[in-house]
Protein: DUF2073 domain-containing protein
Amino acid sequence: MQGIQLDLISEARISQMASMEKVRYIIDEVRKGKILVLEKGLNPMEEAKLIEMTMSAIQPDVFSGIEMQSYPANAESSLLGKLFKKQNSKRLTVIGPANQLKTLKKDRNLISALVSASK
Structure:
């Protein structure tokens, strides 16, 4: 059976991993051609490390890199949250091979992507 594998990864599973373990896991799975949907996204440091490691792993005709989109968590509206400038984490994040996943539209509450079966 030919197709595209889409892995939906719970916050519980990803939160059990150390930062570098998350980054390595994501790169390994995307290199296999999988599209990952993380229930809770990465923090800014993890995203930066993922991009850095992906850029060093790109090889023409082997690994074209990743496409990643996420939307921010709901804004903190409590007085304490505003006073302490609570860092908003990302909500759902979609990550996949750059040659298979293309973002069509993104706003605060919607990510629309096109997934192609060609590699």
Observations:
- DSSP finds four helices and six strands in the chain.
- Residues 33 and 97 are 6 Å apart (CA to CA).
- The longest strand covers residues 90-97.
